[in-house]
Amino acid sequence: MTKHRVTIHDLAHELNTTASTVSRALQDHPRISQSMKAAVWDLAKKLNYQPNSIASSLRKGKGNTIGVIIPRIDRYFFSSVISGIEDVAYESGYNVLICQSYDSWEREKAIVDTLINGKVDGLMVSLATGTKDYKHFQLVQSKELPLIFFDRIPNDMDVNKVEIDDFAGAFKAVDHLVAEGCKRIVHFCGPQHVSVYRNRFEGYKAALLKNGLFFDAGLVFNDIITRDSGEQSAMIISQMKPLPDGIFSASDFSALGAIIKLKELGLQVPLDIAIVGFANEPYDDMLNPGLSSIDQHSIEMGHNVAKLFLEEVSNPQAVLVPKRIILNPELHIRGSSMKNKVINHL
């Protein structure tokens, strides 16, 4: 059973007074009588009341609070970036307020409006897939609030940014598949207006060119970044003639769906089709075979995001010269792409 967190409304109800009176008593307001203050503090101690420091600081206008906006917190990548941000922010006395856009531009815009009106000390943002208009972030800039983008970034805004080299990550993935003998490599790509997916698509094409392979638009599956879409695409792939022998997926989730469905259809991974994903999710090691994937160094990304924020707030009078930090991705090779090893053991 979840334990109820005692609020000022609970204290007010017990004392037959208002929440605003309780709040002022806790803040030692001179207009509140000493007897009321004593009653409030005695009850607060009895009920183990813990003040919400973040809400309090937002009401005061400045409380060492950073707003972080991410598409979804249930993605290992984003939760790890937040961990990296908090590692650095907490040591410097900052609270982190986490908001999810659920990949909606409308929700993202509403969150930005709420946070800047709540007087946060800065924003750290990874864009929603639905975002194509950045006017709400221009408002943040007009208020001279620190604004740092990470992972999904707007290329045409002069702000601090931290990202992985998605082009290089995709190139490594496809180059590896070619080295394993793949010649007809499918690409599961994401929405092309989103920087990370556009750069991964470009890396895919560049690796094909470098290895003398023809780019075939018929092997590109658009907006395939979920498990369900990966499964549906795998069913189509299984019927293609000739059968593709490799898949580079811009998402581990769609790669996961493809592995599951291909195995259900009687195809062998990696012998028939080798697969590489992107994100290095924790479940990659648990699959059979394990999923080869590109690691995005999410904790390091979070550290860098928080450090850029601290640099900006430590020298508020300085003219901002935006920095763009690009991290080097790492390919983790597992069974899903090791076609040569399987062939050598036959």
Secondary structure blueprint with pairings:
Elements: H1 8-15, H2 19-26, H3 34-46, H4 53-60, E1 65-70, H5 76-91, E2 95-100, H6 105-117, E3 122-125, H7 135-142, E4 147-150, E5 160-164, H8 166-179, E6 185-188, H9 195-210, E7 220-221, H10 227-238, E8 246-249, H11 252-264, E9 274-278, E10 292-295, H12 298-314, E11 324-327, E12 330-332, H13 339-344
Any overview of this molecule?
There is one protein chain. The chain is elongated, with a radius of gyration of 25 Å. The protein has helices spanning 8-15, 19-26, 34-46, 53-60, 76-91, 105-117, 135-142, 166-179, 195-210, 227-238, 252-264, 298-314, 339-344; strands spanning 65-70, 95-100, 122-125, 147-150, 160-164, 185-188, 220-221, 246-249, 274-278, 292-295, 324-327, 330-332. The longest helix has 17 residues, at 298-314. The protein is 44% helix and 15% strand. The model has no long low-confidence stretch (mean pLDDT 90). Helix 9 (195-210) links the parallel strand 6 (185-188) and strand 7. The protein contains 13 helices and twelve strands. The chain is an alpha/beta fold.
